[in-house]
């Protein structure tokens, strides 16, 4: 069971402005950003600060935050997914796929490189993600 697209796109913030981050391609952009850089799109001391940046700040290009070479074209595709205005994002998966296919990639990753990336970039928590209520 999922949330209908109509309901998902019409959610409103307290200010009455539509929440642009509700569109699916924004989330794809966030995940792609993390996979390319090993870092979240925005950092902050509090959840409020992070959310405020997602609503108002432009993301820094992934190539500026990655130890690996990222083409300008791939930067452009990822940043287009993170646009605040949904009309500026890829409008469907086919468009996103086409744009990604046009990106140049320098070499393929080996299994060893992928394993090292996951060891270095996967967030580790000192506390459990949730606690069960005691009965």
Q: Can you walk through the features of this model?
A:
This protein has helices at residues 5-9, 24-37, 47-56, 62-65, 72-81, 93-101, 111-121. The protein has seven helices and no strands. Helix 2 (24-37) packs antiparallel against helix 5. By secondary structure, the chain is mainly alpha-helical. The chain has a domain at 24-85. 47% of the residues lie in helices and 0% in strands.
Descriptors for this entry?
about 140 residues, mainly alpha, about 45% helix, disordered N terminus
Number of E strands: 0
Radius of gyration: 17 Å
Order of helices and strands: HHHHHHH
Average predicted confidence as pLDDT: 79
How far apart, in Å, are the first and last alpha carbons?
A: 30 Å
Approximate shape? globular
Quaternary = single chain
Number of helices: 7
**What is the share of helical residues?**
40-55%
Q: What summary fits the major beta sheet? A: none
Helix/strand class: mainly alpha
Range of strand content: under 5%
Regions with pLDDT < 50 over 5+ consecutive residues? 1-22
């Amino acid at each position: 069971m999922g949330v209908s697209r109509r309901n998902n796109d019409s959610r409103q913030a307290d200010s009455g402005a539509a929440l642009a981050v509700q569109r699916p391609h924004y989330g794809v952009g966030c995940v792609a950003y993390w996979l390319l850089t090993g870092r979240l799109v925005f950092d902050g001391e509090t959840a409020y600060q992070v959310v405020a940046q997602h609503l108002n700040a432009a993301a820094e290009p992934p190539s500026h935050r990655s130890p690996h070479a990222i083409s300008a074209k791939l930067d452009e595709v990822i940043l287009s997914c993170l646009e605040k205005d949904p009309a500026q994002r890829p409008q469907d998966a086919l468009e996103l796929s086409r744009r990604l296919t046009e990106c140049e990639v320098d070499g393929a990753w080996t299994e060893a490189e992928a394993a090292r990336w996951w060891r270095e970039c996967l967030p580790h928590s000192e506390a459990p993600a949730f606690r069960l209520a005691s009965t």
